[in-house]
Amino acid sequence: MKRPEEAIGNIAGLQQAIDNSEFDAVLIVSPENLRYASDVLLTSQIKIRDRLTVIVWARGRAPIMVICVVWEALMRRGTWIEDLRTYREFYQRPTDLVAEVLRELKLEGARIGYEGEYLGGVYCDELRQALPGAVLAPCDKLLQRVRSFKTTREIELLRHAYNGTANALLATFLSTVPGQSERSIAHRLSDNIMRSGADAVTTLIFGAGSNTGLHVEAGDYRVQAGDILKSDCGGHYGGYYSNVGRTAKLGALTDEDRSIWRRLREIQHALSDMLRPGVSGREIFEHCVALHRERDLPFAFGHNGHGVGLMIHENPLIAPHEHLVYEAGMVSTVETRVRWPGRVGYHMEDLYLVTDDGPVQLSDAFDNEEILVV
């Protein structure tokens, strides 16, 4: 059977966070946190939300998993968790079995953490009814903090995911010729992302010409010589996301292209260099706004980058209300872009690892220092 230290996530760190928390036990239920805690990618709660899987993790105890019997064999094959309790859907409510486990652990009157951003109100009501003496409170921040520090295996998976997606974009741009529709180019990009090793395509924004001034999926427009090509795309690699932005030009660059791109790259370099321990996302965002103003580039966005991993947007964010500070081991994108709706837009997005010695770019495939000319 798999050992906890063989998991891609930091299981010991998760155990320590729970043991040192305000909660007597936490209930792990969202797809991303189940992936992290069990080390198994279980898609059932994405596709069938009422087929709940719940990890009951009590302070100082080994976790117990409540799972529908149809998923038991798959979970046992891949997880390190030994104690699995099964229910038969439509015959037994999963929350009844969760309550039974908590009573078994003598926690029927305890303080229980649950994922407030995921667990539906109907299930919380069922748990409160079954355990009237318990206090249920959200534990999302506890789980988010553990996941914000990436293990070596997570970092290598993210590097593979980002470079696979970037190379897929490069191949797609280089094979683009006038007359092709945005939709056909996006389909080719999707195929290239899958060939790079992705399990699924998760984001597929692609536009050309005046459509680059928008943030929409590909349509029927046929690209022409002189068009800017822009994409913000990504895939799902072993449960982890990529999210890459790149820009190309179908034909020779104009002086305006070069000027805009030079100013955007100056902003990108300045912001990525700020990804250091002790700096907050709010500080980087405020500097981003100032840099756009100094370079006469409009900025109307709510963020300029984000953590990424088992979700596309994770904390910390480069956003106006983000007070969490970066620490070594965290990752963040820097997403620098400008749009003039109805005319043109330019976009770049890369992933960086925060270290004590400064940021390390993980998405180093498809150099984006200059606009790619096709």
**Mean pLDDT across residues:** 96
First CA to last CA: what distance? 51 Å
Provide the spatial order of strands within the biggest beta sheet: 4-3-2-1-5-6
Put simply, the count of helices is 11
Percent in strands: 15-25%
The helix/strand series, from N terminus to C terminus, equals: HEHHEEHEHEHEHHHEEEEHHEEEEEE
Low-confidence spans: pLDDT under 50, at least 5 residues? none
User: How does the overall form come out from the CA principal axes?
Assistant: elongated
Helix content: 25-40%
The number of strands is: 16
Structural category: alpha/beta
Q: Sketch the major β-sheet.
A: 6 strands, mixed
Gyration radius (Cα, Å) is 23 Å
Q: What kind of oligomer do you see? A: single chain
Characteristic terms for this protein:
374 residues; alpha/beta; six-stranded mixed sheet; five-stranded mixed sheet; 11 helices; 22% strand; elongated
Describe this protein's structure.
With 374 residues, this protein is of the alpha/beta class. It is built from eleven helices and 16 strands. The chain has helices at 11-19, 31-38, 44-47, 72-78, 94-104, 121-130, 140-148, 152-174, 182-195, 255-273, 281-294; strands at residues 25-28, 54-58, 64-68, 83-87, 111-114, 135-138, 200-208, 228-237, 240-241, 244-249, 306-307, 314-317, 331-340, 344-353, 360-361, 372-373. The chain has a six-stranded mixed β-sheet, with helices on both faces. Strands 7, 8, 9, 10 and 16 form a five-stranded mixed β-sheet that branches. It has a three-stranded antiparallel β-sheet with strand order 13-14-15, sandwiched between helices. Helix 5 (94-104) packs across helix 6, helix 8 (152-174) packs antiparallel against helix 9 and helix 10 (255-273) runs antiparallel to helix 11 (281-294). The mean pLDDT is 96.
